[in-house]
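Predict the structure of Formamidopyrimidine-DNA glycosylase.
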Amino acid sequence: MPEGLEAEIYRRSALKGVGRTIAAVEIDEFQAEAPDIAGVLPGLVVTGARRRGKLVLLDLGQGKDVVVLGLHFGMTGRLIVDGHSAIDELEYASGRDQPTWNRLVITFDDGGVMRVNDPRRLARFTLDPDEDRLGPDLLAVSRDELAAALGRRRRAIKAVLLDQTVIAGLGNLLVDEVLWRSGIAPARRSDEVSDDEIGVLHREMTTTLEVLLERGGSHRGVISPEVRSSQPACPRCGGGLTRDQVGGRTTIWCPRHQI
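Done. Here is the predicted structure for Formamidopyrimidine-DNA glycosylase.
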């Protein structure tokens, strides 16, 4: 967390910066590209706010002088624009807004401010990030793209779906939710999933992402953080939910109906 849905909410908030000129930049000293970012951005106009997977991309400048600033929020980063946080609470993060947690502060010439506030220093900022290394975006991936990606790999389907070069933006909460809704066991090899099951998976992925985006984020699903911590009966079939490690990630699933 934040996953692709949270990044989309941040992107929409970042649109408030479009058309504004950057006057000054302060950046956490632990950021490897801090000198470049702090030196390059002042004087540039924000011309766009895009997203690819979990990465929010700010287009800056015009013509040949275009620079792209990539914002990756790690586990606990929040975007705050003109004092307004697009998401008040994140799983695994404090909802407090401590000035000492500011990792990037962009001040506009009109006095407004865009900040990334992150208590754990996991957020990362880069100039002109390599967007080509990412797979199709979670909100745009087609059924054919999904089928091709799963069929080419022989790993657990959960591990494949978490691979950002396969589909950009899916994270642990979303993958558990989508697989639970699709009735597919997370450890099943991706190349063994049938064509019919891929159709179900794509449909459930599309529907789930739309619903959870409207609700406010990845943590609003049936397999929510509360359910993950308490491990009650499966809301669908009544069987016991199980906690396992799949692809190195904590995984909540139902052995009764996920096959």
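The radius of gyration is 19 Å.
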